[in-house]
Amino acid sequence: MIYVRRDPTSNRPAREPAQRKRPVSTRVELCKADQVAAGTALRVEAAGLTVAVFNVEGQFYVTDDACTHGPGSLSEGFIDGDVVECNFHNGQFDIKTGEIVSPPCMIPVKTYLAVVEGGAVFIDVD
Ligand code: FES
User: Is residue 14 assigned to a domain?
Assistant: First the structure.
């Protein structure tokens, strides 16, 4: 005997759940790598985002530019190694992970995977 699982609200056999589609991401160029010297950051507006592109010892990292605590701009903050200090209330974030290093920030800042290709810095956005 063969049992067919049925949708209790209809007489038709139940369908398997549709496979979830992965969001399609778009690669967005933020800037040329040589626009961001080591130990500095650049504020960039692209694809509806405002982000900070950091150069930490030749490696590029991207975070939201807006501090999660208030009106501070992380690209205008003080950079010490892989930590950025917000220019408004001096909260600190880990540039690589977005985690809080020092209050008053309570919420980590969003990070994006930076990709350098052909001398330009890109991120993938959904
Ligand atoms: S606005 Fe950045 S620490 Fe307050």
Answer: no
Pairing of strands 114-117, 41-46: unpaired
Q: Which CATH number does the domain housing residue 118 bear? A: 2.102.10.10
Domain count, the chain: 1
Instruction: Count Cα neighbours of 41 within 13 Å in the Cβ-side half-sphere.
Output: 29
Q: How far is the CA of 19 from the centre of ligand 1 (A)?
A: 41
**56 C-alpha vs ligand 1 centroid, how far in Å?**
21
- Domain-embedded: residue 17: no
**Residue 9: per-residue pLDDT:** 62
Mean pLDDT by 10 residues, the chain (126 residues): 57 61 86 98 97 98 98 98 97 98 97 97 93
Whole domain around residue 33: which residue ranges?
Answer: 26-125
Q: What is the pLDDT of residue 2?
A: 57
Q: CA-to-CA distance for 26 and 113, rounded, in angstroms?
A: 13
